[in-house]
């Protein structure tokens, strides 16, 4: 009988290209149904993702956990490969906290303006922008 593989390959791709490609022992993603943990030899699955943090426990350094901010997308797991296609994704180490704070402030101002003008479409866009900015800030602070 063949020995089961204990490694999961994790790939994260955005329209801009490959953001992440490593081997892992554990992957945690923000699925629509809640946090989903994936390990090697997981049954095939396809799931949509929400705005949130992806965490990857790497095989090359068991004490290391990578954090990646994603803004929606989906994940497919099959044959010990987790392929994530995200609208956008940013590794914690690459997040500019000043830029993320500015985006948060802009979104908060846009929410206030949209609320004052009863513009529901703009309000929804601003709320999503705020979620994304807060997610980036939280992922960056997770690294610290």
Automatic annotation (TrEMBL):
Span of domain ATP synthase F1 complex delta/epsilon subunit N-terminal: 8-89
Topology with respect to the bilayer: Peripheral membrane protein
Keyword vocabulary terms for this entry: ATP synthesis, Cell membrane, CF(1), Hydrogen ion transport, Ion transport, Membrane, Transport
CDD domains named in the record: F1-ATPase_delta (cd12152)
Gene3D superfamilies in alphabetical order: ATP synthase delta/epsilon subunit, C-terminal domain, F0F1 ATP synthase delta/epsilon subunit, N-terminal
Domain ATP synthase epsilon subunit C-terminal, residue spans: 94-140
Cellular localisation: Cell membrane
Keyword Cell membrane belongs to the record: yes
InterPro entries according to UniProt: ATP_F1_dsu/esu_C_sf, ATP_synth_F1_dsu/esu, ATP_synth_F1_dsu/esu_N, ATP_synth_F1_esu_C, ATPsynth_dsu/esu_N
HAMAP family: ATP_synth_epsil_bac
Assigned protein family: Belongs to the ATPase epsilon chain family.
Complexes and interactors: F-type ATPases have 2 components, CF(1) - the catalytic core - and CF(0) - the membrane proton channel. CF(1) has five subunits: alpha(3), beta(3), gamma(1), delta(1), epsilon(1). CF(0) has three main subunits: a, b and c.
Role played: Produces ATP from ADP in the presence of a proton gradient across the membrane.
Name of the protein described by the UniProt record: ATP synthase epsilon chain
Organism in which the protein naturally occurs: Latilactobacillus curvatus (Lactobacillus curvatus)
Gene name, Swiss-Prot/TrEMBL: atpC
